[in-house]
């Protein structure tokens, strides 16, 4: 028997616990339940580009969704209460080892949004495009001292030195990342001008000022209450004619307060304590705690879907290698859900990813000779 969601809710008085309107504009999702009933979410239309079948394997699925909304959906997927059978294109931490991340990231070990010039561009090239974009927007030259807040595995440090010959300092909280980055820098013969610190960004020594600060997808881990402190700290480390360049994932302003006060899948399972900021949260923190102003804004969020798609594909290919590291099927499904969850957010433009440039007013030394900020072609 096949019924529509509207028929189900109208005949039973059942009300959904979360809004499916936006999702069903892009997908037609029949939910196949025990006993042969199919509940169809969405209607066939020109907007409907994906058709998926959600197959329920355990009746507890319904209770999880009704009682726990999106967290329940995540739990139900991890526990294998349901699965997707897509007819077109498949189902859409610092404590983990370098080896684990290497099994789904590209050779640069960049755990952030890439930038694609073409639809079929490989992930490494897209990540280098992103790195070059940040370097270009920071306008780094060989006389600059650059600080990277959240240096990760050191890929931006190596590219910065190779392209500009600047002096580089980066910080991380991960001993695993630190050892990996130091090894890669030594292999490249760049250790004389690259220094990594194992410390919080607030503990970076203020004995010298930096001409440029770059931070790529780290501010999401700062927390709502500490955004002002982040900008205040950055300004205290910046030289007179300097620039701050950030890349970060973003939440729409009208959803930010509700989201930060509630839990969701990523905060529950992947990044405990993270806070995806809105654009206005960033600018308000900047204006109330520093003398900085915004010089450039670009939303590259459309590039995150293909980035995540490639991570998920490589993760699936290396599933057995990941399990040999000691992870079980539940862990595999949790990460698979994480990729899909984020892909949906960026594909639907619910989430964004901004590159922003900040400066103090009147900074003609850094900005005066440049008519515009460089920008990469948009993925389409």
Brief summary:
Helices cover 41% and strands 20% of the residues. The protein is of the alpha/beta class.
Q: Which key phrases capture this entry?
A:
alpha/beta; 380 residues; 12 strands; disordered N terminus; seven-stranded mixed β-sheet; five-stranded mixed β-sheet; Rossmann fold
Secondary structure category: alpha/beta
Please tell me the total number of domains. 2
Spatial ordering of strands, largest sheet? 8-7-6-9-10-12-11
Radius of gyration: 23 Å
Work out the strand percent: 15-25%
Alpha carbon gap, first and last residue: 39 Å
What do the pLDDT scores average to? 83
* CATH architectural group of the largest domain: 3-Layer(aba) Sandwich
Instruction: Assign a percent range to the helix content.
Output: 40-55%
Low-confidence stretches: 1-28, 46-51, 86-94
DSSP summary: helix tally: 15
- Describe the largest sheet: 7 strands, mixed
**Beta-strand segment tally:** 12
Strand and helix order = EHHEEEHEHHEHEHEEHEHHHEHHHEH
What is the CATH top level name of the largest domain?
A: Alpha Beta
CATH superfamily of the largest domain: Vaccinia Virus protein VP39
Spatial shape = globular
Pfam family, one: CMAS
GO molecular function, one term: methyltransferase activity
Protein name: Cyclopropane-fatty-acyl-phospholipid synthase
